[in-house]
Amino acid sequence: MGPRRRSLLVGGAALGLLGAAGCSRVSGSGAEDGGNLLERLRSQGTVRLGIAGEIPFGYIDKDGDFTGEAPEIAKVIFKRLGVAKVQPVPTEFGSLIPGLRSQQFDVVSAGMYINPDRCAQVIFSDPDYRMRDAFIVRKGNPKNIHNYQDIVKRKAKMATGTAYAQIGYAEDTGIKQSDMLILPDQLAGLLAVEQGRADVFAGTTVTVHNVVKQRNSRLAEATEPFQAMVDGKPDIGAGGFAFRPEETRLRDAFNVELHKMKKSGELLRIMRPFGFTREEMTDLTAEELCS
C-alpha cells in the first residue's frame, strides 16, 4: 500500500484487549446519506479505535493504559461528538485497513500516513501532523550523516524498521534493501547503532528523538529532521484518522472538531507531550494528500 509505518503489539495486555474488543461490531448503514455510524456510536456510548502499538502514535503503555497522540486526540473529539468512551483494538499496522473495512473497529487511530493507495480503500480526516525523517547515529555523528545521500557517499551501514517508509526513501537514493539491516522498531535501531552493528538508523523525527531521549543514550544521538525525497520531489508524510468509505458524516463531524482544535492551539497542547512541536503542525488537507 505504498510507504507505511508498521509496528508490533505492545505486550500481553494489548493482546488481551484485542480479544475483548473484537466481540461486538457496529455496522454503519444508510451509506447513501453519509452513513449512520455516528448516531449508533452515540447510542452505545463507545467507539472502538484501531491502533498499531507504535510509540508515540497509538499504544498501550507499560502501565496498561491506552495512549498516544492519535488516541488522545480521539478521546477529546469523540467526547465532544457525544461518544464518552473509547476502546482500543490493537493489531498490526498492515491489518488496520482490512480490520476497519471488516468492522473489527470503527476508526483507525494510529497516525496513518495519508496517500492515494490508501485513499482508494478508506476515507481520511485531514491530517493532524506532518512528519519529516531523522537518523540515530553515534554520538558526535562521526560519519557526518544528515540525509540518505550521505549514507551512500560515506558507504555507511543503514538500519530501519520493518516495512517503514524509510526503506523506500533509501531505495530511491540507490541503497539496496538487501544491504539494509531491517529491525522490529526504533529501540532495536538505537541498540544497533550503540553496538556498532549499524552506522545509522532511519525513522520519523518524532520516533527517533523520542527513543534517544527516553533511553538517555550516552553512545548515540538523533540528527536534525530533514525532508525525504522520492523521484527528486519532497515526499510528504502526513497522518490522520481513517474511516470506512460510506461514513462521510462521521468523518466530516470529526474534521469540524479537529479544525477547531488546530485553530485554538489545543491540538498542539495535546500532542506536545508525545514529542510533537509546532514544526509538525500542518494545514494540509486529506484531499491534497489523496491526489
TrEMBL record:
**What NCBIfam families does the annotation carry?**
ectoine_ehuB
CDD domains for this protein: PBP2_Ehub_like (cd01002)
Mind telling me which SMART domains this protein's record contains? PBPb
Zinc among keywords: no
> Coiled-coil regions in this chain?
none
Where are the membrane-spanning stretches? none
Question: Does this UniProt record's set of keywords contain Secreted?
Answer: no
Question: Taking every annotated instance into account, which residue ranges of this chain make up the domain Solute-binding protein family 3/N-terminal?
Answer: 46-278
| Official protein name in the record | Polar amino acid transport system substrate-binding protein
Q: Which UniProt keywords apply?
A: Signal
Q: Which SUPFAM superfamilies match?
A: Periplasmic binding protein-like II
Superkingdom to which the source organism belongs: Bacteria
